[in-house]
TrEMBL record:
Pfam families per record: Na_sulph_symp
Gene that encodes it: SLC13A2
GO biological process, one term: cellular response to lithium ion
Protein name per Swiss-Prot or TrEMBL: Solute carrier family 13 member 2
GO cellular component: plasma membrane
Natural source organism: Vombatus ursinus (Common wombat)
Lineage: Eukaryota, Metazoa, Chordata, Craniata, Vertebrata
């Protein structure tokens, strides 16, 4: 209906953004379907040509996303992620607090490279199997000693344990419980439930936190790279794998440790000696839990040729990403493939696709021919490390289109003049201290991402933040970086992110449990990110000045401004 109205292009673009924001929040249509609206409405409203809009749906950032996922699919296909997880858990041990830490470290590490959802779906069953052994071992011992009423024990787990049950046990006339049940039975059940809840939340939170660390770890990070390249085409690849990792990895480590401490205090209590089993011998249930992990690891057998090949290609990919154009020294991309400015002509997406294509060439068995029984004289070549059927089943094509829709929106905002208009309206923010601006914006994004997709959140916010930064002469990355990371702080609601929904589906958590744990963790996350961008973020992205590449589409010069004089450190 807005196509025929005699409105300026800024208003028409704003109409498209508001329409898509409402559809994304309400999910009246699939997110990927809504992402196609710019492809239809921008040409009809004379904002952009159809050919210009179409290019945004498969740009370099989307190529990086697909290439990185191809490698991640190969890792999942050969169960390499499960082998890594079990090996780390065997190394850390099964003491209560260390078990929490072990599962969170493994989940966070895997989420750096593969899908947060896939990591959570793999880790939660392993965690519950280990916890069942921790719970069953003492029960089995009590049953053999005759101290537990078996008939009651079989019925009790069918009912949730509440906080009011100990009071019922103390009442005189309200107890149908058999006298043979020990009074500490309910206490053990409550402890097991709390540990299970804490472990489940630890896994889903670690998946979201771990995705922050790498550029390909979660989709909002790639949205940032694409938006920066689209809005500021003159930037010298300022957001790349190496620069993002240098900024985000320390932030992830701090946030992961703080979340572990918070969950430990909330679900395990303050008993340091009990949580770490200091000075105690290994308990029977701990040995049983360790044996579960050991048995799962043994089922995998020795590493196959395919696993070794995928491991080598994976590490090679990471090394090439880090050294292509690191910034603080000439990378191999600058030396071997320079353009007229001395910058690398290859991108991270080029490297990802090159090594991913090799996955379709290298055989999954040791090079040679295998001969099956009953087929004498017939030789059969082994399958490749990766095949297209597997890719087609596991590739989230909807995210590719969702990313493209976001890039098209950003480009349309710039072309229509909406970005400049918004920037002019936000100039009063210039009087607010820079760290306060970052904290408020991060808190706003963290609240918004609880209600809608983190990809949609970053897609809607980043163009506005870029315009605001230009208007008040802030380095755009100073607000875009922390707000992108804050979009991953979806800790309070089951619908906020797929990892939350996965752990909630196991039935041991209530919404209030997740909200209680996630509320403080959101605050901790916002404070940690604000600290990060005001400390080590400065030298990595040169946030102490307004860059030349950010002045390409504004009329006034910002070289004389410096809004960082109230930050946490001296630039």
């Amino acid at each position: 209906p807005g196509c025929s109205l005699p409105l300026p292009s800024e208003s028409k673009c704003a109409y498209v953004i508001i329409l898509m924001a409402l559809l994304w929040c309400m999910e009246a249509l699939p997110l990927a379907v809504t992402a196609f609206f710019p492809l239809i409405l921008f040409p009809m409203m004379a904002i952009m040509d159809a050919s210009e809009v179409s290019v945004e749906y498969l740009n370099d950032t989307n190529i990086l996303f697909i290439g990185g996922l191809l490698m991640a699919i190969a890792v999942e296909h050969w169960n390499l992620h499960k082998r890594i997880a079990l090996r780390v858990l065997l190394f850390i041990g099964v003491k209560p607090a260390l078990l929490f830490l072990g599962f969170m470290i493994v989940t966070a590490f895997l989420s750096m490279w593969i899908s947060n959802t896939a990591t959570t779906a793999m880790m939660v069953p392993i965690a519950h199997a280990v916890l069942e052994q921790l719970h069953r071992a003492p029960e089995q011992k009590d049953r053999e000693a005759g101290s537990v009423n078996i008939s009651f024990e079989l019925q009790e787990p069918n009912y949730p344990i509440t906080e009011k049950e100990p009071q019922k046990l103390c009442e005189k006339d309200s107890s149908p419980v058999p006298p043979s049940v020990p009074l500490d039975y309910h206490q053990k059940e409550r402890e097991h439930l709390k540990i299970s809840q804490g472990m489940s939340l630890g896994v889903c939170y670690a998946a979201s936190i771990g995705g922050i660390a790498t550029l390909t770890g979660t989709t909002p990070n790639l949205v940032l790279q694409g938006q920066v390249n689209s809005i500021f085409p003159d930037n010298p690849s300022v957001v790349n794998f190496a620069s993002w990792f240098g900024f985000a990895f320390p932030t992830m480590i701090i946030l992961l440790l703080l979340s572990w401490i918070w969950l430990q205090l909330l679900f395990l209590g303050f008993n340091f000696r009990k949580n770490f089993s200091c000075g105690d011998k290994t308990l029977e249930q701990e040995r049983a839990a360790y044996q579960v992990i050991q048995a799962e690891h043994k089922k995998l057998g020795p590493m196959s040729f395919a696993e070794k090949a995928v491991t080598f290609l994976f590490f090679l990919l990471v090394v090439l990403w880090f050294t292509r154009e690191p910034g603080f020294f000439p990378g191999w991309g600058n030396v071997a493939f320079p353009n007229h400015k001395g910058e690398s002509m290859l991108s991270d997406g080029t490297v990802a696709f090159f090594l991913s294509m090799i996955l379709f060439i290298i055989p999954s068995e040791f090079p040679g021919f295998s001969q099956q029984q009953g087929t004498q004289g017939k030789l059969k070549a082994p399958a490749a490390l990766l095949n297209w059927n597997t890719v087609n089943k596991k590739m989230p094509w909807n995210i590719v289109f969702l990313l493209g829709g976001g890039f098209a929106l950003a480009r349309g905002s710039e072309v229509s003049g909406l970005s400049e208009w918004l920037g002019n309206k936000l100039t009063p923010l210039q009087s607010i201290p820079s760290p306060a601006i970052v904290f408020i914006l991060c808190l706003l994004v963290a609240v918004f991402t609880e209600c809608t997709s983190n990809v949609a959140t970053t897609t809607l916010f980043l163009p506005i933040l870029a315009s605001m930064a230009q208007a008040i002469c802030l380095n755009p990355l100073y607000v875009m970086l922390p707000c992108t990371m804050s979009s991953s702080l979806a800790f309070m609601l089951p619908v906020a992110t797929p990892p939350n929904a996965i752990v909630f589906s196991f039935g041991q958590l209530k919404v209030c449990d997740m909200a209680r744990a996630g509320f403080l963790l959101n605050i901790i996350g916002v404070l940690t990110i604000t600290l990060a961008v005001n400390t080590w973020g400065y030298p990595i992205f040169q946030l102490d000045h307004f860059p030349d590449w950010a002045q390409s589409n504004i009329t006034t010069s910002c070289n004389v401004y410096n809004q960082f004089n109230t930050s946490f450190i001296d630039p």
